[in-house]
Design goal:
Length: 552
């Protein structure tokens, strides 16, 4: 892979001298397991609102699960054995269940041990783990409404390095190169290719790449992080703050954790609106407006079964980094006022309750803007999101099945702003899991575990969206707060009702199968059937993604 080995060597040498820490990627299945254990009151102190978490954190939760192993069902008893292998070093400090290709003996690609290209361990000083990765994706898109079909194959290779120095500092770097063989329309079913610069700079380009990397310092009570990786913030399957549909961005962060109290903060660099400035002399240049996001949250565990949090978010742009938002311990709304009201600040409250064994109930209220004396008047400026859901493990021990229900109501104009540079997007993509304001979502999801290596999920996602009515020419006839990229204008109505405008309906049926026949080798199948009744078109399509991924 281009430049990967050279860059890796430099970062390894730098890692010995600087500070970095290892997190478990947000798409690791261990998070589903931990949330299940939380719901079953085995680790009630666990909170899934902010992901990812460090390997150290996760291993501490796994230790408590191991202490209560007799309370697990048959599938989870086998799954915890797999996790003991994956997190062996964090749990026991040994590498007896790991093997390496370089400087190793009897490497077996079919072994159930943890596989590495290379690892090195000097206890209390430094450890290093190196992997190569490979992935192949077959993608099929059947546009039933247009009677058209497309397909593509994605080949992806890459590698990753992680390590820890002096038990406090760590490093992580991951890089991948890929190529599209086939039709681009089908390739875009892999969502992150939609905004991949290299692939989209030229209509004939088929190459794409991506990188993640960070360095952190962990001092038990307080932890620092600088870099880029995927974050998820919010409860439920669909996140109201940070989801998976936005380009990965760089940020600097800090976390404080002490028993009943936690505090988290990050300041990130987003991508603003972009355009191409043509120049016959230089050949032109891509121009992106500056844009930033700051976030902080304070959380309290009032008991083993109940916790709540309060946090703020601010979006700002078209100026250098604002030092006032780099301060973790301040009130963003007041800072916004003192900065002459140029930015977009939001406030949220979240609660998480698992008082009943096998039942997790959560809720989040996000206030984009509000004027209390105008509550109930239909004033456009009262913008809130109500998100609530239930995770059920009531059949645990009888049927290895999790049932999830989620409801989300997004008021008109939420996520928008009168200045488009301040809306809740990065490169035009909503930071949350949702696409448009003035919407409501009903989600049902069932996860079933056949065994520790095979599971599937079924989900039904029903959305209603109040879209801005359009003229025959396609321009906005009336603004009802239904477009993320169109905030309230001076001549728009001062009142608006929830789901005003043209009602659009979306029904998404999803099936997902994950099979891990050999440790670190995955076979996945995702099938989605989408049926939409939009203002300008009816859309019906079947999407299929088959993937094989390996790590060694």
């Amino acid at each position: 892979m281009r430049y990967f080995i050279a860059v890796s060597i430099v970062l390894i040498l730098c890692g010995v001298l600087s500070a970095q820490t290892e997190y478990v990627p947000s798409d690791n299945s261990v998070y589903q397991f931990l949330e299940r254990m939380e719901t079953m009151q085995i680790i009630p102190e666990y909170n899934s609102f902010e992901i990812p978490k460090t390997r150290k954190e996760i291993s501490s939760y796994l230790e408590k699960v191991i202490e209560s192993e007799s309370r697990l069902d048959d599938v989870d008893k086998k799954l915890i054995e797999d996790l003991k292998v994956e997190f062996e070093y964090e749990l026991s400090g040994t590498l007896e269940n790991s093997m390496k290709i370089i400087d190793g003996d009897n490497y077996n690609f079919l072994s159930q041990k943890q596989k590495y290209l290379y690892f090195f361990d000097a206890p209390e000083k430094i450890n290093l783990f190196v992997n190569l990765t490979g992935e192949g994706n077959l993608l099929f898109k059947n546009d039933i409404q247009m009677d058209s079909r497309s397909s593509a194959f994605l080949g992806i290779i890459g590698g990753e390095i992680r390590g820890t120095v002096l038990n406090k500092f760590g490093l992580f770097i991951k890089g991948t190169d890929g190529n599209v063989f086939g039709e681009r329309e089908a390739a875009y079913l892999k969502n992150d290719l939609r905004y991949n610069y290299k692939l989209n700079e030229n209509p004939k380009e088929t190459f794409f790449d991506e990188t993640q990397g960070y360095m952190t310092a962990d001092f038990d009570l307080i932890r620092f992080k600088y870099g880029r990786d995927r974050m998820n913030i919010g409860y439920g399957t669909d996140k109201i703050i940070l989801g998976n549909g936005v380009p990965i961005f760089d940020y600097i962060g800090m976390d404080i954790n002490y028993k009943f109290f936690s505090y988290s903060f990050f300041h990130g660099q987003l991508l603003g609106d972009g355009y191409y400035a043509n120049d016959t002399v230089t050949g032109g240049v891509h121009v992106l407006e500056s844009k930033y996001m700051a976030y902080h949250r304070i959380g309290f565990n009032l008991s083993k079964s109940f916790n709540f949090g309060v946090g703020e978010i601010v979006i700002y742009g078209e100026r250098p980094i604002d030092l006032s938002y780099l301060n973790p311990f301040t009130f963003y709304k007041s800072i916004e006022h003192s900065n002459r009201d140029r930015d977009n600040a939001m406030l949220f409250f979240d609660v998480n309750n698992k008082s009943f064994k096998g039942l997790k109930i959560y809720g989040t209220l996000l206030i984009d803007d509000i004027t209390f004396e105008k509550l109930g008047t239909g004033w456009w400026g009262n913008q809130t999101i109500l998100d609530a859901g239930v995770n059920s493990e009531l059949l645990y021990g009888i049927i290895p099945m999790t049932i999830k229900l989620q409801y989300t109501r997004i008021d008109p104009y939420v996520y928008t702003h009168r200045l488009i540079r301040n809306n809740f997007t990065s490169y035009g993509y909503n930071l949350s899991s949702f696409t448009q304001p003035n919407s409501e979502l009903f989600l049902t999801e069932i996860n079933y575990r056949f065994n520790n290596r095979l599971q599937f999920s079924l989900s039904y996602d029903y959305k209603i969206h109040g879209a801005n009515p359009l003229t025959p020419a396609g321009s906005v006839k009336e603004n009802v707060g239904g477009n993320l990229n169109l905030g309230h204008r001076t001549f728009d109505s001062e009142t608006v009702k929830f789901l005003d405008g043209f009602k659009e309906y979306s029904r998404l049926y999803s099936f997902s199968l994950v099979y891990e026949p050999i440790n670190e080798y995955y076979i996945t199948a995702d099938i989605n059937y989408l049926n939409e009744s939009l203002q300008t078109v009816k859309n019906e399509q079947l999407e299929t993604i088959l993937a094989v991924s390996i790590k060694f």
